[in-house]
Design goal:
Strand content: 15-25%
Mean pLDDT: 92
Structural class: alpha/beta
Number of domains: 1
CATH architecture: 3-Layer(aba) Sandwich
CATH superfamily: Vaccinia Virus protein VP39
CATH topology: Rossmann fold
Order of helices and strands: EEEHHEHEHEEHEEHEEHHHH
Low-confidence stretches: none
Largest sheet: 7 strands, mixed
Number of strands: 11
Helix content: 25-40%
Amino acid sequence: MNAAACPIPCNLCGSVDVEELSALDRDGRPLRTTICRACGLVWSNPRPGEDEVRRYYSREYRMDYKGIATPSLRHIARSGRGAMNRCRDLAPFLKPGDRVLDAGAGGGEMVYALRRLDFDAMGLEPDERYARHARETLGVPVETGFVQDRSFPSGRFDVITMYHSLEHVEDPVGILTTLRRWLSEGGRLLVEVPNVEARCIHPRHRFHFAHFYNFNRATLEATGRRAGLEPVRTSTSPDGGNLITVFMASGSSRAPQALPGNYERVSQIVRGHTAAGYYLSAAPYAGPLGRLRSFLKDRAAARGRATAREVLDSLIAHS
């Protein structure tokens, strides 16, 4: 395709040589998703304008995603259990006294857990109501706003976390470049995103209108390198659905470059993942059981607790 058919060039390598990978989102609504033939990055092309994106993420996204304006005790229990798992994963990269930022902090559960573990943690969250909930209900410093609008001093943080947020931004390289400036030299950035190569989901459910970008390991690591970050470790979740990369602030950004073979790899995996193959795997049967177990654990963690802090304090005490 030429530039006229590619209104948004590749964020990673700048190419406009793209191919349509899908025409629908996971709910069957129109969503044109393209893949770069030079590097294999996948993104929504076109996407809504900046004003619409900001309005959506500051006021509507959490309601769409959670179904409620502020988290219930059961949702807090779920996020709290996730926060404790994330704290354990992050532990090898934390040292006493570290200053930590959680970018895309949601209701503030991760910030709360880190502060209870004696780290100097704060958060940044676009959703006005969730950020207010974190401040007023949990009593933690979560600022309302977008990364691109905030101006922290260079080297302000030793560790930054970004869980399931990078796929939502309009300029991943630009956002990671900003986060790199906020890191101290040798600081760590942990990014978790959905894996575009995942086979644990139905093939029709791969693309979401709120996920502007879709990464595999190669494109996630290359996006970090473009921003002056060096991958230290990349892993996938047990079901293969998510990618987790720990980056180190390396000092210099990389020039745009192609990733030979990655377009072929991603397109083959995405197109080769069929409904028949999905239903012949364990994924469609393990998924509902896992969600049921999680629901029961969340409900048990919230039962008998009167406040969000009580829920989180109990989870921290028993972790």
